[in-house]
Write a structure and sequence with these properties.
With 297 residues, the protein is of the alpha/beta class. It has helices at 10-20, 41-46, 63-66, 82-94, 120-126, 131-137, 154-169, 178-186, 192-206, 220-223, 249-263, 268-275, 279-289, 292-295, and strands at residues 2-3, 28-32, 47-48, 60-61, 71-75, 96-97, 106-107, 111-116, 142-143, 175-176, 212-213, 232-233, 241-242. The chain has 14 helices and 13 strands.
């Protein structure tokens, strides 16, 4: 089960898992669970026999059958209706199903990956997602954090997409000046990697030559963030915290603690030594900021 906000790259992680699976040379079948009309869910997932319903002019294999010996990726699983969830649960639990209108029990074996931007536990409590299906799917959960929580990735993503779009549009390579790069590092990217990718594509398309991209050439959503009062980490390569005037001392301290812990693989003793705290003081501050990721030993 891959969870995370929209645009964080859940499908990319799904494809990575498929690639490293022993069945990597087999098919990966992707299903957008929110895009299939409810009346067609059973046919799309399980397939149908010729004559099973009006318009069924030929036998059709469903996604379960097509994914046999490969990977079935159920994207946006939280959008699936309750009635469709019932049919999905039975096929997953038994590893077998019948096509619509069919009598033969078909057995399949595939790697199942599901993804959602919903908090399924809350949906279970509200009754919009089946509890038994939730626990059947959520054997191993992979949470993909939003880009604002992994700012050290921004520089790598900028360079990756810049190279990709320069090749695509036949543009010469260019650099971002210090101000434009600092703005992108400080920006929260509410649309996550998808928004960053679109920003780099837009910048590449509008680039008319020269050596540098200035801040004025960035989208307004980013340039308007100049007035933000949130400090930003500019990555291990820089080793710098960008702290705008107006940032709260708590926010500055919190970010400094977290980035120090990240740089020493969450070693509390080493981090406390670097920060000039006693280890107990560091634990107290982590409790104060309520970050479970770093508070754990």
């Amino acid at each position: 089960m891959i969870t995370g906000e929209n645009g964080t790259g859940k499908e990319v992680f799904a494809r990575l898992l498929h690639y490293h699976n022993s069945n990597q040379n087999r098919n990966m079948i992707t299903v957008n669970c929110g895009a299939i009309p409810e009346e067609l869910v059973e046919s799309e997932m399980l397939g149908h026999e010729k004559g099973a319903f009006t318009g069924a002019d030929a036998q059709k294999k469903g996604c379960f059958e097509l994914a046999d010996k490969g990977t079935l990726f159920l994207d946006e699983i939280g959008e699936m209706s309750l009635s469709a969830q019932v049919k999905l649960l039975r096929a997953i639990e038994l590893g077998s199903f019948r096509r619509v209108g069919g009598k033969e029990e078909i057995h399949v074996d595939f790697t199942l990956i599901a993804a959602t931007n919903k908090i399924l536990n809350d949906q279970v409590k509200s009754g919009s997602f089946r509890e038994d299906l939730y626990y059947r799917l959520n054997v191993i959960e992979l949470y993909v954090p939003p880009l604002r929580h992994r700012k050290e990735d921004i520089s790598l993503l900028i360079e990756f997409y810049k190279s990709q779009f320069c090749d695509l549009y036949g543009k010469p390579d260019f650099l971002f000046d210090d101000e434009s790069r600092a703005l992108m590092m400080a920006y929260d990217w509410p649309g996550n990697i998808r928004e960053l990718k679109n920003c780099i594509e837009r910048t590449t398309v509008l680039f008319e030559g020269g050596d540098y991209i200035s801040a004025e050439m960035l989208p307004a959503s980013i340039t308007n963030s100049r007035n933000t009062h949130t400090p930003a980490y500019l990555g291990e390569a820089c080793g710098i915290l960008q702290i705008p005037i107006g940032a709260s001392l708590d926010e500055i301290e919190r970010l400094a603690i977290h980035q120090t812990l990240s740089s020493v693989d969450n070693n509390k003793t080493e981090a406390a030594k670097i920060l000039g705290f006693a280890r107990k003081t560091l634990h107290n501050k982590l409790d104060k900021y309520g970050d479970e990721q770093y508070a754990m030993d």
